[in-house]
Write a structure and sequence with these properties.
alpha/beta, 2 domains, homotetramer, 7-stranded mixed β-sheet, Aspartate Aminotransferase, domain 1, about 15% strand, 4-stranded antiparallel β-sheet, Aspartate Aminotransferase, domain 2, 11 strands
Chain lengths: ~350, ~350, ~350, ~350
């Protein structure tokens, strides 16, 4: 019963098979292999963007930081939510890669910025002339950090604010596939068709070993990205092994079916937990993640039963069995119904 | 006949098997997996260094840049040879990771610095007080960039110079295994026992998909390294797949046997080429790489016969069939005798 | 009637005289001049800190950024108030000088952090292991950005919080002298005796042309500071002209008498304004600066009468004469009683 | 007898007078003062460049580093001579300000690059695709670091090489005025008319307290420069005191007459020294600086007579009175004929 993270489960078998297949003979290094050409074509088709440029890296932090470094100057600031991964969980990699740009933190009730708060934050920056940082890019996370998924209308409204100020938009899509699965839209409808300029398109949390694609819909940034990637030491020599994973991911909709599976795992889990007294959710689990308040007694039963997940607030040990403690639960594609039901059973008591 | 690079060949089958084996069930992310614990123990044993700290990254440039960033300050300078990979082939990643430190280029006849030249370069820096960069670390490459291998005595002499000035020593060992195979020494004898402080211990060029270990013999730098790695976006979530590769590599001496195989492939190749009129080598091919001058006619026959390798100087097309053109030839563990003999056959004409 | 800033007035005549006197003959450059030696002795005496190291720079932003760069690592974060100059008004110079460290913004009601808010902010950082930035330094501004002055007790409480977490404390004292004048304490009592580690000791806003001192009470950081200052291009060749200004400033208490004069100018001004209907202050003008809400009609009269100051919020033109508009008013040492009375007269109408 | 540096002498009296004059009343800070407007007009007239943008900073290192940061990207490299001030004497400030760009060192016999060496260096970079740094800007020093002055033809030839590769050209003119005085040309003829894109126009070494102008002939870089200057903490609040100095410098040709005076002082000095047995010059002292080999006995007499200058190589104490020791001698505008003659007298013995 492993609900700690979607990066703790196994790699999808199709991906392992693809790696074996890729291991035939010799291939030109540094992205000049055939698989990379095929991946580029796949991305362009899936995103309905014939000019899109695609670059592979091995971590989500690399995808975000390198994309943003190409989208803002050191003397600019990136607008993101108070709980954005780029702000909280990347040890200031965006600041490092951008040469010292700032992140301006937009308040958020749970995990979504409102257009008004975003507008107010942007408006407040760039009013002090040369003394303050200049307005740079806007970064939006989808799936959000606490498990919500922006509707297309919500994304549109945020992007419209960025466009009011003529700022480029980055989408941190570490769980891009899960959001598409939730919304039932196409990849294009959730990105370029809305005006997104660059996407961090996650694979690692959805069955790959460690591959993320950075997609720029405007190909002009390509060479700069390549240089920054190399300079950031993120250019693999044996790129064929990254490309093979991404190719498998994009073939026959594996990216989407895996995400659908993860989301429906979460639906099964949250529906079970919802019925338990004293359980509440920080946000509706729109995709494959939930932040749940559960009584200490529930946590104790789960813990003793062998369930693995992160407690985000509070201590497992304590006097009051009904005290609510916050935890994070994440399902990946590999979690079985049996595991989920066992978890719910333990939680129910 | 692929002699372009040791990062163009397939991954060793043992490594693929290890990846499949690692793909069972769930594992804690970010380096807290069991395989990583085992790798640490293996490295400590092989390097006879019970306190050594080991960190895995996915590219050689990351290994070098992160190690050096922990070994020098932004206002210092790193001493390296004029053909060092960190100077020529990393798009200034060391400068980026160190926050803008300089590299001071020590002249070299072919690919080895002499102790006297190193001493003169170090002496010349640090004489201008606050106006010049301060003396930082010394970085030595082994196997050298043109195919030479330093003897233990040569390494010792260079390290002694660093120690005269109390500077830490980094060893860029992208082909560490090949050098050990050449010298017939132990890993410890070529590193910590000589006074090396940190090693970039390569795996990618020797049968892994993309894994290098950074080894600090003084564990004090560990936490700083971890922070810089995360901040550089080089912390994998699914570290078990890096660890599994490295574990396989260090098991039953695979690292060494693969390197021996690559070296003996090069010996077979160079012995064949050596007999051809007009062929000469920039340096003795001590390990698995040679820079060879060969007449244009030889290149033409190879090219037409389907051999793949990089021409480093001169154009394949040209009037004079005897004009010598410089090329680089590299053997990895996977090259077969038949391929080598076919190559020699074509070259011989 | 110039109340826009304390950096808009003339330099104190004593300072010009000192510059002329300094212009005799030849002096060793780069801080090796005699005046610099005397300044060091003066600072040590005034701060009762015989080991203190003193470095001169020409801007407050340089003082803050260089001091902080010596006090925190690129992977750390600096805690400061939401209105701190280092956050809002230095175009991310601290991020630049530190190599990309973050600033963690502590909320503040007006311009003072509370110890509880500071503690909560520090506690919240450093809980995500390698994923978040590490806890770095605490930076406190005195005089605060909206005109308040921390009492010694308030400073002590903030510093105690920093010490709970073993973090070094930086004091942004662009208006250090004005705060000392307000509190009637000694320079030492407001800094090293409280546990402050480094002070940006301002001179420019208090009658110098452009000189600030960075004072480290622990001399260990001296050489690093010198290197970072040079590398930041802030080492003057003709340092004697900086030193001469600072020497004059520290002689016969000019620094303090100028600040007292500026503060009493503000007292006269604020006492006059306070009596006007519809005038209120964002914070008590403890030193030489006030943020005042005044009805539009008042602003219009002042504007037409030739008063110069910054409107911080709202537009001078508008329908409602009673609408309150926020402005900033600052007095330096040079403002005359007549100017102040003329201003009050206009405002009173 | 102070020949150590042209930044050790007094400020020109006209400059002190200008500072006093500038000290009247109130002035808008941060470059919005009237004197700055006048300086801009003066520069445009003197450089015959009606669109040129002018920014003042207080050190030559700031001028060079900020100019170059606007002219090259972090993943590019700046070409300069092996003895360039930006390489040897700025503690890597250009690397810092550019975000980690490299300097590619072009060999030079004494202190001038040849067009062929520059071309070879540029050609060699940018041939390794994404692996090496990209070609950035070319930086030329005039007056050169060992005292030579490039002829207009020499400058033209170097600039032509930069233009072959479409690279922008920076001129480090810390002693710009001295070079113009030597060549007898106009400021425009030695800069924009030759194709120079940006000039560091020195004032500090020629009678100012600490003011240098950065001049961009293409005004497009202006806003970026302003942001980088602020972020580098080089924006003075009381800019009027920088502007006043520069205004005095550019009024009635003070910049040129001071340089002519310094050059003729050097001519008097070098003509005297030239006659002494055993004295030789590293390069012809074209402007106001000479690197001279002089026998130890000569140095001893000078030292005992109270002459102050830097010994660049060798030790004053030693057995052999005829051993030649290298020193640097610099004249500024303030050195009197009597001092020079006294120096020559001592040297002659």
């Amino acid at each position: 019963m492993f609900f700690a993270s979607d990066n703790a489960g196994p790699v999808h078998p199709e991906v392992l098979t693809a790696l074996s297949r890729a291991n035939e003979g010799y291939a030109m290094p540094y992205g000049a292999d055939d698989a990379m050409m095929r991946v580029r074509a796949q991305v362009r088709e899936i995103f309905e963007a014939p000019d899109a440029m695609v670059h592979l890296v091995s971590t989500g932090t690399a995808a975000n930081s390198l994309a943003l470094a190409c989208m803002c100057q050191p003397y600019e600031t990136v607008f993101c939510s108070a709980v954005a991964h780029i702000h909280e969980d990347e040890c200031s990699a965006p600041e490092f890669y951008s040469g010292g740009a700032k992140l301006t933190i937009v308040p958020c009730a749970v995990d979504k910025m409102t257009p008004d708060d975003l507008r107010a934050s942007i408006a407040a920056e760039g009013t002090r002339g040369v003394h303050g940082p200049q307005r740079g890019a806007v970064s939006i996370t989808q799936v959000c950090e606490k498990g919500s998924v922006h509707s297309l209308e919500e994304l549109k409204a945020l992007i419209a604010v960025a466009q009011e100020f003529d700022l480029p938009v980055h989408l941190d899509g570490a769980r891009f596939a899960n959001a598409v699965a939730t919304l039932g839209c196409s990849a294009a409808e959730m990105s370029c068709k809305l005006g997104v300029d660059a996407v961090s398109f996650g694979g690692t949390k959805n069955g790959l070993m460690g591959v993320e694609a950075v997609i720029f819909f405007d190909p002009q940034k390509t060479w700069e990205f390549e240089l920054r990637r190399k300079r950031g030491a993120h250019l693999f020599s044996k790129t064929r092994y990254l490309a093979a994973q991404m190719e498998a991911y994009l073939t026959d909709g594996l990216w989407l079916s895996s995400a659908q599976r993860a989301n429906s795992n979460m639906a099964r889990l949250s529906n079970g937990l919802r019925k338990i007294d004293g359980v509440s959710f920080l946000a509706e689990p729109d995709a494959n993640m939930v932040f749940a308040m559960m009584p200490r007694a529930v946590h104790k039963r789960l813990h003793e039963g062998g369930a693995v997940y992160y407690l985000m607030q509070g201590e497992l040990e304590g006097d009051d069995p009904s005290e609510p403690l916050l935890c994070r639960l994440v399902c990946d594609w590999s979690i079985s119904d049996a595991q989920i039901d066992q978890f719910i059973g333990l939680a129910t008591g």
